[in-house]
Amino acid sequence: xxxxxxxxxxxxxxxxxxxxxxxxxxxxxxxxxxxxxxxxxxxxxxxxxxxxxxxxxxxxxxxxxxxxxxxxxxxxxxxxxxxxxxxxxxxxxxxxxxxxxxxxxxxxxxxxxxxxxxxxxxxxxxxxxxxxxxxxxxxxxxxxxxxxxxxxxxxxxxxxxxxxxxxxxxxxxxxxxxxxxxxxxxxxxxxxxxxxxxxxxxxxxxxxxxxxxxxxxxxxxxxxxxxxxxxxxxxxxxxxxxxxxxxxxxxxxxxxxxxxxxxxxxxxxxxxxxxxxxxxxxxxxxxxxxxxxxxxxxxxxxxxxxxxxxxxxxxxxxxxxxxxxxxxxxxxxxxxxxxxxxxxxxxxxxxxxxxxxxxxxxxxxxxxxxxxxxxxxxxxxxxxxxxxxxxxxxxxxxxxxxxxxxxxxxxxxxxxxxxxxxxxxxxxxxxxxxxxxxxxxxxxxxxxxxxxxxxxxxxxxxxxxxxx
Length: 468
Known about the structure:
The chain is of the alpha+beta class. It has 13 helices and 13 strands. It folds into 4 domains: 3-157, Restriction Endonuclease (3-Layer(aba) Sandwich); 160-229, no CATH class; 238-315, no CATH class; 334-465, no CATH class. 46% of the residues lie in helices and 17% in strands. The strands form 4 sheets. The protein has a 5-stranded mixed sheet, sandwiched between helices. The longest helix has 31 residues, at 159-189. The radius of gyration is 30 Å and the shape is extended.
């Protein structure tokens, strides 16, 4: 697609389509986390909000994206002028918002300013100068005009152009199909050939605008576009909270199911293409070759086979969903989401640091070296009272003496079933997959679950019995 066509496509989008069909998927491709459409009457300057993880300082940064259609002018009074943008930037940075996934008030760290046009007549300079005077010019992470936007799409989201072309081709095919059927109908109801030609000509050059845009939203279901263009990693927002269950990571598991379904569709699609080509082919030799190609999908009983084994039985996954739903409803009913997040963050922060220090000074042979995590919290005030990580030495206790291979106690979990939980692990007795290939930081990141899983299970037990 030529650059002029790309500009024309982007600049003809309304602001809502620009945000939802271009900017939000582009932000995901660029690595930003959870881009959310936030444009509404109470948006407080934020058209889109997202976040990113700063790996250097180990913290999450929150960003607001301000999206404008068309050029931004140097006017201080018009709706497309720089002064309007400045007010939106100030509002975005000064006023907090409630993050829909984390259910807490957060403040914006920086903003992205994106326009589908140009920054005209020193407008961008005026924006920076005004913000610099108030010492908040660093609020702008980047300013992106149409040229830079197209470059970012080319580099990171190039499939957008092909999806647009596919959609346009599909609409053309649908139009041609409609005209073909109309021509057949005309031949039935209009007897004279000249009159038929005249009617078709009038229809094809008619000044009457047939509005096909309302059907664009359903174009993903037309065979010409197909499932290969679908975003299969989408999941209902309800299931995106970090709530563990015994069975699986729900978001990852759903993605795996969709990938299995997509692979199955690929196989079906291949067979359908072969069968379609057999029907359309006139050369007998070509038909024979196509039949040979079909043989790769037929078993010894002469049946066309596929492998839906990863899809048909999801009884365990149903249990995972039920457990997730039960825990989320419990957190909601007890108004305990914030306490849950606090405990979760406390475990990740303290246990990871302690594990790194533990492995730096303890050899793999230190089988009697233990690491413990203890937390005291209040379900009345919904806060952590105290928490600590500690090391100690303890001889392993044998818990299965009469077996050929004796088993030892390498984990201790204590809870007074009110507000205190202790998890103690003989860390060097746990096998860690690909341990030799992991650096100590990644090793600690993977091992945190051994503290987090049992602690959170006990937390839900305590929460279910609390009066709050």
